[in-house]
Structure formats: C-alpha cells, structure tokens
Design goal:
By secondary structure, this protein is of the alpha/beta class. It is 50% helix and 13% strand.
C-alpha cells in the first residue's frame, strides 16, 4: 500500500513549473517529501530527468548520506515493482555520482575542478576549526603589533584606546576577527564592510537610521504602556473601590504616554527633555486593610511601567548636538577599524596560502568568485561557468534553507535558471543558528514573494503543517503557547493558523495529560535552585519508571515508560548538565550527557595531557603529581608526602627543588616504586623524541595499557573514543606541517585559551536504556517519547550586548566613545540602536529555540522551571498576560528566560489555578476550542520534596551491642584468599587462568596513524565499522553508511579509510547475513552478565572459596534467535593466523559466551559462531561453528 500524502505534501511533490518554497513545520515529513519529489522527477514519463541533472543540497554530511540512502531505497522499491525499467536501472547506477552534497562539499568540488581559473594549487588542505582559530589570533596579534610600531600619526593608538580594555588588546583582537567572520557571510565582504562607514556621514539624528530605530523602540514602549494601562482600567471595572482610588491616576498615565509619543515623533531634543522631567500623578487611597487581586495587579503593573520609563533617557542617550559631534569625531576611527579588518583578511589569507590551506569561508568565496562578479551596486553578474551550470541542472533542491547566509544564497541564485528552478525547504521557526551567521530573514524575504497554490502562479509557496510526530495534546500545547507569544515583532513571524501544527500522528488513546508544567519554588541562591530542580527531575523520572503509570507507545501498543524514553533538554549545558547527571546517578538512573564535562576536563584526557607535559618537561610539579597519583602509577598522597619529606632532610633551610628531583633522589635511596616510575617515564621520553604527536599518544596508551583502563571505567566506550579524538587532533596538528611534542602541547593550550574547549565523543546508541541529557541545539532533528525541558529559568545570554562595540545587520556598527582625555566612556546613538536590534533578534532566536525544544516530544512534554520567590515572581509574569488573545510583543521581547515566556501563556490555562492564586493577580482564563488540551500543573516547594527525597533514600540503622561489634571486628573470613581475586571479569578472559596481570591492557589502540598501519589496526577499524553500522543501510550502500559513521564521530577519518570495504561487503552478501535478517529478534552489541564459580578462572582455589561466584561481563557482537534458540556471532579481525590457531585462541571465550548468554537470556544456544574477516587471501571469511554438544568446523568460500 502506497503512502497517503496530504494535499499540501502532494502539491510539494508534484508542482514543478517554477520555483517552489516549502515551509515545513516540525515533524511534517519534509525529508520524505523531498525524496519523493526526486523520485517523481526521475520517473516522470512526460519529462524524465537523470540523477546527474539534479543538485540536492543538505547542511550536514549525515543528512547527505541519509538522503542518498533513502533515494536509493526508493529507486530499488520501484525497480522491484518494474524490474525491466532501463531508465530506473540507469538512475540507480548513477546515484553514487549524483550531486547530493553539503554546500561546503559542492563549493569544494567546484573549486578543485576549476583551480586553474583561480590560480591556486588543487591539493590545498582544509583547516579544522581549532587550527583556524589559533591562526586567526596569531595573525591578528602580529598585525596589531606592527600597527603600534608604524603609528606615526597616532590614529591607530586612538582607535586602540577606544577598543581595548586595560593594558590588553584581547578585546580588540576579538572584535577584528568577529567583524571579519561576519563579513564572510556576505557575497562581497569588502562592500559590506564599507557600508558600515556610510551611516557615520549623517549628523542629523532624526534622519539617521539609528535615530529611527531608537524612536520606534521608544514609541513601541509607550504603546505598551498605554495597552497595559488600558488593561488596568478594564480590570478596575469589576472593583469599584480600586477604581475610585486609582482610576484617575491611571487615566492620567494614559494621557501622558500619548503626549510623550507625539513629542518623540516631533523632535528628538524635546522628547529627551520631556522624559527627563516625567512626573506621575499619585494614586489615591483605598480603605485601610482593603485587599484584592485587582489592587495588587494595578500596583504591580504601574510600578513596572514607571521603572520602564525611567530607562528612556539612557536609551535616548545623547542630544541631537551631541550626536552630531559623535558622528564627526568617530568617522575617522571607524574608517581605520574597517581598514584593519580588511588588512587582517589579506594577511590571514596570505598565511593560509603559505601553508597551501584554506578554511570553509575561503572555499565558499572561491566558488562564488567562479560564479559571480559584483556589479558594484550590491548585485551580481553571472560568469560563463555559472551560465553553464544553470543550463545543466534541471532543478536545485535545498534543504534547511532557513539556515543559509547571503553568500550561500547567491551561490544558489547564480547556478539556477534565473531563480526559476529552485526547490527550497525549511522552517523559519526552527532557525536557531544565527550565531553561525544563519540569516532566517532570507527565507522570509523569499517567502514574501511567493504565491498560493490556488493562484497558479510561480514562485509557489506551500506550507506543510501536518505533524506526524506528536500526540494531539503536545501539538495543541505548542500552538497555544506560540499563538500568544510569537509575532512579527517578537519572533519575526506571525504564528497564525497557517503556521500552527496539525496533529496527524496516530497513537493509542490514554487518559493521562500529554503536557505537564512543574514549578519548583524555593528561596535559595542560583546554585541551590539548580541543584533542587535537578533532584526534582531525577525523582520524577525515578518514580515514573518505578510506578509504571506513564504509558508510551511501543510496537503500536502502550507500555510503561523506561529510562530510554526520557530526554532532558537544556538551553545550555555548561555548568548545568553535570548537575542533572549527578542527580540522576545518585538515584542509580543510567544517564548520558555529552557535556557533563568538557573534552579537556575528561579524566582520561586530563591524565594523558599531564603525562605528555611530563614527557616534554618532567620538571613541572603539578602535571607530575597528577601522573604519579593516577591509578596507572598508583602513588598515594602519603607516598608523595614521604618523598617530599625526605627531600627536606637533604636540602638547606628555605631551599626547594622540583618534585622530579625528589623522586629521583628517592629512587637512588632504594625506593623501588619510584625507580620503576622513573624507568617508565624515561622510556616514554625516548619515544617522544622520534614519534609524531599522534603516534606518541597511541604508543603511550599501548605502553601503559591506559586505553584498556579507560575502557573499564564508567562510560568506557566514550572515554576510548575521546582518546581517539585526541589522536586525531594530534595528527591534524602534524598534517598542518607542525612537528614535536612541545609544539603540540602549546597548540592544545592555545585551543583551550581561544576556543575554550573541544567537543567530546559521540552519543550512545538509540536503543540504549539510558536517560539522555542534551542541549536544544543538539536535539534538533531528533524526537523522544518523553521530553523534559528543564532549567527554563536560566537567563538568556546577553553578554554580547554589553560590549563596547556591537555589529547589527540592520543598525550597522555601534560603538561607545571615549572622551579626549581617554578617561571616560559614554554611550552613543549608534550603539544604543545596535543594542535594540541585537536584543530583538536575540529574543526572536530564543523564541525559535523554545519552539524547537517543545516540538521534540512525541507523547509527553514536561516543562520544569524554578521560581525562587513565587508570589513576587509569578505576579510579575501575571501582569503581562493581558486580556486579549496575544501577549504584548514589547512585553514578550523584554522577557529574559523561557520560564517567563511559557508561564505568560500557560498561566491563562484553566489548569493553572494554583499559579494564579500564588500570583495574587486576576489573570483571565483563555483557551480557544481549536487549541484545547489537558495540562497537569504541579507546584512543589523544594525544601519539602528535598526532605522527602532524602527520606526515600535513607536506610535505617539497627543498634548493636558493643560486645557484638568487638566480636565481629575480630572475625577472620575463611574466604580471605579471595582478596586477590577480582569480583568481576570480562568474558574475553576465558582462556586466562590464574592471577596474571602481566598483559593487562596491553593491546594496541584502534586509532589509525597516517601511515604504516599494522594489520591489527586495520582489523580493529573494520570491527568498529561492524559495531556501529546500521546493517540495513550498510547492505544497501556500504560507502554511504561508512560516511555517516565517520561524520558522526563513531570512526575517525583515518579509521574510515582503513575499513576493509571488500571484506565488509562480502559479509553482507553471506548466508549468515541472510539468517540475521530473517530473524525476528536480533541483538547487536548485547551486553550480558553471568555468575561463574571462581575455580573456573582460578583452579588453585579450593573449598568454599572455589565456589564463590564471580560476575562475568561481556558484550556479544551479534546474537539472534533462530528456531527458538540463540545463535551467537563473534566477529574476528585477527590477521596472520590460520583457522586452527583462531579456533584454539577463542574456544574458551566462546564457551563463556554460550553459558553466560544462555543464563542472561533464559534460552538455549543453538550455535556459537566465529566470523573471520582476514583469515587469509584465499578464504576471505570463514565461519566456525560450536555446537553445545560437540565442536564442528567448516569454511564458507565466497563466490
């Protein structure tokens, strides 16, 4: 049965007589529509096109691989229905060569193919972000140093004084680099930079764009004051006592606001003087002791308006004469600043040219130079190459169009057929990457030129509003919130019926509310508030899973929620996610958070970096102490104290020496542990003299066994991946032409100083039963059964708006001005206008972040916030709720956290009665029929639930008598012999008998160096591919699946290159794979634990100790059910061994697998199989079968 498309989806798929822009709401199936449109274009009987005639652009490599895979699967499905279709067969063959790529990849290919036209070498390398950041800082600092030396007229020093704070030029460097980065988002950077100077030619503030922006903002503020005052008057109609006392004053306020507004529009100086002399009429008196919600609401709202009006003189911060003077004096420094930014761009390019390297902005602009030239007026003229490409591509399809910038948009325009064959898809409500130069206004601008389907005109605008992700309660809640909050003024988009979500997902019915709002009240400080909320969320998840009352859909039926159904979303992870992760861990809840600590803070990375510092220079006390105290070398704090104490005995009073010399002295005096430590350090130091940085990290892990130790730690797989990332960074450092351990350490220090940190390794598998914590940005494109949007009270980051210099797309360059004596700094109209526009765009971005967060939930949306002082805090929110269908946009723009935004909307829901009572304000209930949904509101005091939570975990102690205590202390356990026997073992230890740690953690790491890979390393890469790959995707297109894994960080680029594609392909063509796909129950990377008697591993044990149970843990590569029994498959990539040797090596291990999995899963084992990828040249793969009763061996030879 074919897919049943909605009418709008059908239009998006079929309309192809011109350009089409599709606004695709969250969960609307835009990717599926895009794939179907491509298939229809390829199979159009009247006007068929070839896959090579289409350009399909996505914004991530993972999305590209997914798109190619889905198109391939769709073509195969059509071929299965019509196997004789030669056109389809040809399209499937051409698919690997089709232009399905990212914008970066398209530009890079274009530049390499036309390098001769650009006069560059085709073998340039691409800079990674960390290297580019460091290079920019180095180039800029050197440029400023020369500028100081060459400053003959003092113009640079004057500019530097304005830009820099204190004695450091750090702020100046950041500003120049920031302006350069922003300029590269425009097609002609120098033209954009020059435009920033133009406004400094207008001395009349009433005519300047800055004056216009400020006056509009003040008028919006006054309109808000009038609207709020009218709401007060309406509220007082039901309370005559308050109306008699306060009505005259509020009406006087309304008249005053109207007069002020007239003055703002009439004359700047007159308005500024009026705001400096504002006087409010006093409120009348209500009878003593009279209290009412209306009285509280009017007093709270009026005070807020009075406080707001006091800020206007600081917003209209200069007189017209002062502005004229500012413009005259600042034009020179601004011009000098623009010249420096241009100069930086040239010098940065020259430095990259020396290294024959380029960053992604270079690639973008080189591609643009091949396609378009400026006409000098902001427009462009197509080149011959652009016209050639325009005639080649039948259609250009662009996904995530809301996140492009002006330079990228011109690329698409230049290669299109006069913009008549563009199919663009996006959702401006999900544009949350403005910090990466995304410009959602481009999408809105193009959408404003489109026509409806009914008009029959092109360009055509289509909206996909059906949501196939969420329950109707979730979509209705989202609509309810955003109809009240999002508008053109606050959100850059009017959230009306055309933007609303239409629930189209099918779920089994249930009685519980789909949406919940939890308000945690307390009077603690910020840290206490976060801790309390984290514990509250942990308790909520714990109870939900234990009680089993919350049901989610699995396999079409309702089942109790498990940990893997939960995702905690946060606006920011720094200093926040770790608090939630710890709270969950304290309750024994499995949790994964990619940001619980930064890359450099991870224990495994911190240790390796400390060790590298010691190898580079051992006379560094802090790194040396960290290494000695690590589990790897096992020194105790007492042993270090003894080493230091012995040194004091040798030294004169007041004399000191480095720790390393003290350790060496202890070794000379017979300390065997210190001697062994120094021997290992000296051995590794000798290696550091000859090995590259990347190979050194690998050898350090190999020599010390640290990769295995890291793997055995909690979250071990990610720790090993982190070590692999460190190797990758080291290799990139070497590949850029740098050499030596000292240089690599300086590189890492610069990264930490300039970028702050690096991303940690990849997330766990989708099927892991583990609570995930991630930021809203990380969650984009994902969905979860139960979403908890927490920490909503976290204030928005407005640090950029406090800078002395601001850049805004609409206000241009705004900066503070220093007095001529250089002592004082004061605001200017240019900077105030930039602050206003930056705040507006920032709030609109946060509104879209909120939309993304709330639309990740499939079945349950749980919103959690903290209100430290509930009566006061909720009252401030309540007065903004208004009485109409929408909150005032000006009020919305002033809210500085998600909590205020959400509460402003949800306090009007009938279920929020407790919140309204706490606020003491008469908030009108509002719930239109079209957005009706059930909402559960819970208000919890942190002190009470923290006490309750502690009681839940408290274990009562039983009193014992003193004699019994003494008796037990004297007890000698007959099983004390087990003290040297570990309580846990790995299944792979099956062939190791006795207590022998000589080879613990001694296997080579699986991270590939750039040359001379060992067979074992190549085999490890292939094994990791099998571990992480999606079998169905790999079977359909193994190269695309490999690209997805590399892009997702599951394999490094070097590992990706080392994967034996041929061996993997033969696996997916084997009869074993047919059996796997035929099974209804396949378990990949199946973790297990089972109990074995200690004597199994330690034959020397006797008596009771021999029967003591040891937990054996392991991970089976693949387990599937066949004929009601288990089939266990273990992949082997050993090289240089024959079949019998392989069989001998792993027979005991597989025996453990058989017994342990049978125990764990409660099923008999049919077969235990070894699949070898590299047995020899003639037998590329072999299967060894172990039958429980007997052992059989056979080989499968590929065709």
């Amino acid at each position: 049965m074919g897919v049943k498309w909605t009418t709008d989806q059908q239009h998006a798929i079929e309309c192809c007589k011109g350009s089409v822009l599709v606004s695709a709401a969250a969960g609307s199936g835009k990717t599926t529509v895009l794939v179907e449109r491509v298939i229809r274009r390829l199979t159009d009987e009247d006007n068929p096109c070839s896959a090579e005639d289409l350009l399909i652009v996505t914004f991530t490599r993972a999305a590209t691989a997914q798109m190619r895979e889905k198109i391939g699967a769709a073509i195969l499905k059509r071929l299965s229905e019509n196997p004789t279709d030669r056109h389809l067969r040809r399209q499937y063959m051409l698919l690997p060569f089709a232009k399905i790529c990212t914008i970066d990849s398209f530009c890079n290919d274009l530049v390499r193919e036309n390098f001769h036209a650009l006069g560059i070498s085709p073998d340039y390398s691409l800079l990674d972000n960390e290297t580019a950041v460091i290079m920019k800082n180095d180039v800029c600092e050197a440029m400023l140093e020369r500028a100081y030396e060459e400053d003959s007229d003092g113009s640079f020093s004057g500019l530097s004084d304005m830009m820099s704070s204190g004695s450091s030029d750090e702020d100046f460097v950041k500003l120049i680099i920031k302006m350069y980065d922003i300029s590269t988002a425009y097609p002609f950077p120098d033209l954009w930079l020059d435009s920033l100077i133009e406004e400094y030619s207008q001395p009349d503030i009433n005519k300047s764009c800055w004056g216009v922006i400020i006056k509009k903002y003040v008028c919006d503020m006054l309109d808000y004051c009038v609207s709020s005052s009218n709401d007060m008057m309406a509220a007082m109609e039901s309370d005559s006592i308050v109306a008699d006392a306060y009505g005259a004053a509020v009406q006087s306020d309304i008249n005053m606001y109207a007069e002020l507004r007239e003055k703002v529009n009439r004359d700047w100086d007159e308005a500024l003087e009026a705001f400096n002399t504002v006087k409010y009429m006093g409120l009348g008196r209500v009878p003593k002791g009279y209290e009412s919600e209306t009285k509280n609401a009017v007093m709270t709202a009026r005070k807020k308006l009075k406080d707001l009006l006091k800020k206007v003189p600081n917003i209209m911060c200069v007189s017209s004469g002062e502005h004229s003077e500012d413009v005259r004096l600042m034009r020179g420094p601004v011009t000098k600043l623009i010249e420096l930014v241009k100069q930086f761009g040239r010098e940065y390019s020259a430095e990259k040219d020396k290294m024959n390297s380029a960053d992604f902005s270079d690639i973008l602009h080189r591609a643009l130079n091949l396609l378009a030239v400026s006409d000098g007026r902001g427009g462009y003229i197509k080149t011959d190459l652009a016209r050639e490409l325009s005639s080649h591509y039948v259609e250009i399809l662009v996904d995530e169009y809301q996140d492009i910038n002006e330079a990228q948009d011109m690329i698409f325009k230049a290669i299109s057929a006069d913009e008549n064959n563009l199919f663009t898809v996006g959702d401006v409500k999900q544009s949350i990457y403005r910090f990466r130069q995304a410009m959602p206004e481009i999408f809105l601008r193009r959408r404003s030129t489109t026509h409806s389907f009914e008009s029959g005109k092109y360009p055509l605008g289509i909206t996909l509003g059906s949501n196939f992700r969420s329950r109707v309660g979730v979509t209705s809640c989202v609509n309810y919130i955003f109809r009240q909050l999002m508008s053109t003024e606050a959100g850059e988009l009017e959230y009306d019926d055309s933007e609303a979500l239409n629930a189209a997902a099918k779920y089994p019915e249930r009685d519980t509310p789909d949406c919940e709002l939890h308000v945690v009240t307390d009077k603690g400080n910020k840290a206490d508030t976060l801790e309390a909320q984290a514990r509250y969320v942990a308790r909520y998840i714990d109870r939900t899973v234990r009680e089993g009352k919350t049901l989610v859909t699995k396999g079409g039926a309702l089942h109790p929620a498990s940990y893997g159904d939960f995702c905690i979303l946060l606006r920011t992870a720094k200093n926040v996610s770790s608090v939630y992760a710890n709270a969950l861990s304290e309750r024994g809840i499995p949790v994964f958070s990619p940001e619980t600590g930064g890359f450099f803070e991870a224990a495994e990375i911190s240790f390796i970096l400390s060790l590298l510092r010691v190898l580079d220079n051992p006379v560094q006390d802090i790194p040396l102490a960290a290494v000695m105290l690590s589990p790897l070398f096992g020194f105790s704090a007492g042993e270090l104290a003894d080493i230091r104490a012995s040194a004091k005995e040798r030294l004169e009073a007041g004399e000191t020496e480095p720790l390393y010399r003290s350790v060496a002295a202890s070794a000379d005096e017979g300390d065997e542990k210190a001697a062994a430590f120094l021997k290992k350090i000296e051995s590794l130091r000798r290696l550091s003299l000859t090995l590259s940085a990347g190979e050194l990290v690998r050898r350090v892990c190999e020599e010390t066994g640290f990769d295995a130790i890291a793997g055995a730690m909690p979250d071990g797989e990610r720790r090993r991946l982190n070590i692999g990332l460190l190797c990758d960074y080291a290799e990139k450092y070497e590949a850029a032409g740098n050499l030596g351990l000292s240089g690599f350490i300086r590189f890492i220090d610069k990264v930490a100083r300039t970028s702050g940190d690096l991303a940690t390794a990849a997330r766990p598998s989708e099927n892991a039963d583990i609570v995930r914590i991630m930021t809203v940005h990380q969650s984009k494109g994902l969905e979860f059964p139960i979403c908890i949007f927490a920490d909503m009270q976290h204030a928005f980051n407005e640090r950029d708006n406090t800078e002395s210099v601001l850049i805004s797309s609409s206000a241009g360059l705004g900066m503070k001005r220093r007095t001529e004596d250089g002592i004082s700094v004061y605001d200017t109209a240019s900077r105030r206008a930039a602050v206003i526009t930056s705040e507006r765009m920032g709030r609109s971005e946060e509104m879209r972040v909120l939309y993304v967060a709330l639309t990740r939930a499939k079945e349950n949306l749980v919103m959690v916030t903290s209100v430290p002082n509930p009566e006061k805090g909720l009252a401030k929110v309540a007065v903004e709720c208004g009485i109409g269908e929408r909150a005032n946009p000006f009020a919305v723009l002033r809210m500085n956290n998600f909590s205020d935004l959400v509460l402003t909307a949800l306090m009007r829901h009938p279920a929020a009665d407790e919140l309204r009572k706490l606020s003491g304000v008469d908030v009108p209930i509002f719930l239109p029929e079209k957005d009706r949904f059930k909402l559960k509101v819970v208000v919890s005091d942190s002190e009470s639930f923290m006490t309750e939570s502690a009681n839940e975990q408290k274990i009562a102690a039983k009193p014992v008598f003193f004699d019994e205590v003494c008796e037990r202390l004297d007890y000698s356990d007959p099983r004390s012999v087990l003290s040297s026997v570990p309580a846990k073992r790995a299944a792979s230890d099956g062939s190791e008998r006795g207590i022998n740690r000589e080879y613990f953690a001694s296997s080579r790491p699986a991270f590939m160096s750039s040359g001379g890979l060992t067979p074992a390393q190549r085999g490890t890469a292939t094994h990791k591919f099998m571990q992480f790959s999606d079998y169905a995707a790999a079977r359909a297109d193994i190269e695309s699946e490999l690209a997805r894994l590399v892009d997702g960080g599951f394999l490094s680029e070097e590992e990706g290159k080392a994967v034996n594609i041929g061996a993997a392909k033969r696996f997916f063509m084997s009869s074993l794979v047919e059996r796997i796909f035929a099974s209804d129950n396949v378990m990949r990377e199946k973790k297990f634990a089972a109990l074995f008697p200690a004597k199994f591993f330690y034959p020397e044990l006797t008596g009771e100790a021999a029967e003591e149970k040891i937990v054996v843990q392991g991970i089976a590569d693949c387990v599937f059910v066949e004929d009601g029994k288990l089939v266990i498959v273990d992949y082997k990539t050993d090289t240089g061994v024959d079949a019998e040797a392989l069989l001998d090596r792993y027979s005991a291990q597989l025996g453990i697998y058989r017994e342990a999995l049978s125990q764990a899963l409660g099923m008999p084992v049919k077969e235990t199989l070894l699949y070898s990828f590299f047995i020899n040249d003639s037998l590329s793969h072999q299967i060894r079968v172990f039958v429980p009763e007997k052992l059989a061996l056979f080989f499968v030879v590929p065709n």
